[in-house]
Protein: Peptidase A1 domain-containing protein
Amino acid sequence: MIYYPTPFLSIICLLLLPLHISANNDLGFSVNLIRKNTLHNNHYVLPISGLLSDVEKTPQSRIYAYLGQHLMELSIGTPPFKIYGITDTGSDLTWTQCVPCNNCYKQRNSMFDPQKSTSYRNISCDSKLCHKLDTGVCSPEKRCNYTYAYASDGITQGALAQETITLTSTMGKSVPLKGVVFGCGHNNTGGFNDHEMGIIGLGGGPVSLISQIGSSFGGKMFSQCLVPFHTNVSISSKMSFGRGSKVLGKGAVSTPLVAKEVKTLYFVTLLGISVGKTYLPFNGSSKIVSKGNMILDSGTPPTYLPTELYDRVVDQVRKHVAMTPVTNDPNLGTQLCYRTENNLPGPVLTAHFEGANVTLNPIQTFISPKQDIFCLGFTNTSSDVGIYGNFAQSNYLIGFDLETKHVSFKPMDCTKHK
Structure:
């Protein structure tokens, strides 16, 4: 889910899919994405600037998948209060709905009440922290307020504050991280469902969770392994943070992160896409490819391609599939869909990133929106920059290394990534 300063760019549809994440590190922590969480009573207080000891080095927070997004479970405040937020590499701010919340979307769990937390601290509008978020403004009480908007038309408004966020180590210990900047949302609207209590911002900007806690785990780096769409919500996968999250070994390939003015987003360069053995260059007949023409976004399910490339991909997929597309279902719009009980046997697509060929099987490219229907999980955009969404990212261990400025991909059955 991509954050845009105003004016909003509504180029992303907000679908919702289940995710699970966690990690094994040398020096770092893990985040499990599963349904239930057991919070242990043993606590280790860790300032953001501190390094984990051996016993604490793999903290994790459980996360589960629901309706197209990957929901990470974090505990916030003192005593710890569980929240479930969308894991989002397309935005920075971590926020949750807070009491009082008079203009908010409905959520099934109770909301976080800052008055019940002994570690909650409002940020003054005179603080440098207030200005790290470009929408920080001063309230009449001299507190830092924020407005944060997404391309999917979601908006959160509230107080920018500092809190203790607690993760759970693989050894069953609670690892509180003090002084994390987050948004206490009092006015939140958009296409959120009642399981989503906010968003966990994992972008590259200064207020993202990874930027704030990176120094505690050996560097600003993390890896994720997203389970495919419609995976049973009881099955977990992992997101790892810190030095031990590097994606290495047989089958691993990497592509450079491209620096642009927008620090939040992870830009990479897509040279083209192959459908079977047919190679389709990004810019048609042109050999010139703009650097940073794709955004890696775990908060956007489909992959968005510039219209001209999208049309060529769809045309080739049609040629490779020996079935007649569904054309008489108005609920499917203009998507390329087929009526079949099981997913299609092919074709295999390959995303040719600069330095990294990433093979995509039908489980990553054809999604079932309803029974006996499978649709290509790609769509088009009028922008010349596309979005590589979480359908295509599934069943790959993907490592984001903000220190070396590379993203690595390694094929993996993420339902078995423990």
Remarks:
- Residues 5-27, 33-47, 52-56 have pLDDT under 50 and may be disordered.
- The helical segments are 128-132, 209-213, 307-320, 362-365, 390-393.
- The first strand starts at residue 28 and ends at 32.
- The CA atoms of residues 324 and 338 lie 7 Å apart.
